[in-house]
Amino acid sequence: MNRNLLERWIGTLHTNSHHFRSALLIALLIPCFLSCSLFEKNKLQSIIAAGELVVLTRASPTTYFETPEGPAGFEHDLVKSFAESLGVNPRFIVAEKFSDIIPRFINGEANMAAAGITVTESRAKLVQFGPLYQEIRQQVIYRLGTTRPTNVQELIGRQIEVQSGTSYAERLTHLQQEYPELKWAEVDKETEELLLTVWQGLLEITIADSNIVAVNRQYFPDLQIAFSFSNPESLAWAFPQGPDQSLHDAAMKFLAKSRASGELAQLVDRYYGPASRSNFINLSVYKVRLRSILPRYQLFFEKAGKQYGLDWRLLAAIGYQESFWDPEATSPTGVRGIMMLTEETASHLGIKDRLDAAESIGGGARYIKNLIERMPPGVTEPDRLWMALASYNIGINHLEDARILTQKQGRDPNKWNDVKNYLPWLADEAWHIKTKFGYARGMEPVLFVNRVRTYYDVLVKIDEEEKVKKKPKAFDLKAPAI
Does residue 49 sit in the same domain as residue 112? Predict the structure, then answer.
């Protein structure tokens, strides 16, 4: 009700009591104030009412990425768990560039931002940071075989590039006050792309957070850590500044509970535990396992190979690359078993128990056979097999995106040697935004195919040598481990 109208109405009352008019005015205004302020929904209540938590993130191996079974990633899983605690569904908005996240967030595009954001003084002036959930260090990265810088002084005169708008650039700017001759270039490339450039030998030095380095070194083992900067930094979610702290406070309570229950530690181990182990192709270990582990499952591989017209040694090589022949293996994205099948794929294949070795191997054989048959007619052997293997790892849709990129670059989309050069482009935001199925960690299927081929070649060589010795089986099941 309009206050002036209310006062004029009260003034018409036939009373000389000023106190009566004041009391009546307050009594009539109280319901208005209650309805306009006390019962107005805060940010958290509005999200719960809408049933949706909108989150800004970015596509990368440490934050958010698509898998054949749906979205995954450390940030994705943590946010999803938070959303479930609120009783709502998360909706992710994937920014094309890391530098776009905070500006878009400030512009009101999301309720929160979760993208591996390092807490810095400059960013704290723009957003309200939530609880710190992971501590990282910035690391100086170079390629094995090149000169290793051991300190900041030795970075002077080196070719250094870092992603613009990051805390790496802030760190270098601060160091330049002490080392005026220190020079670097800030480029509009994602950190993962710069790591790839160092691995390719096209860049000497870059800087990346330790969690990003850990994940990427699984796929690019020649990436080396020169040294880490002494001061650790923290990652946190970003929330809007202002008096309404309801969502921020809910996140504080959620992460405190997640930390106390061990859920946060389990999530860190799920995504970064495997990264703590070297992923070089260790042929010495492989040869030992050929004798000690493979005999337990060889008959299953042989049976599946015969049933689907495939070389059992190829199936064994896939199984080793996927799980090291561990029937209970489970990945961060939920694929399981010796052949690491997704739940959706297993259901489609009629597999009831992915942890049953025979079922997993039979399902994997059927799946790879199906992928071989689905390759376009123009793709002939052996390219047909290599592309089917790439699809086994990344999905047939992303492979098709890479084939289209290959063709647009004037190369042959039916030749693996051409397609494998453009699969990594799916991780480059300059290119994946132009594809139908978007971002993918395109270097992984390239490494996957290379490793399967290596394991297969070694297994064939040893198997043929055993046959020459006229042994009834490729391996003597009673032979001791070497």
Answer: yes
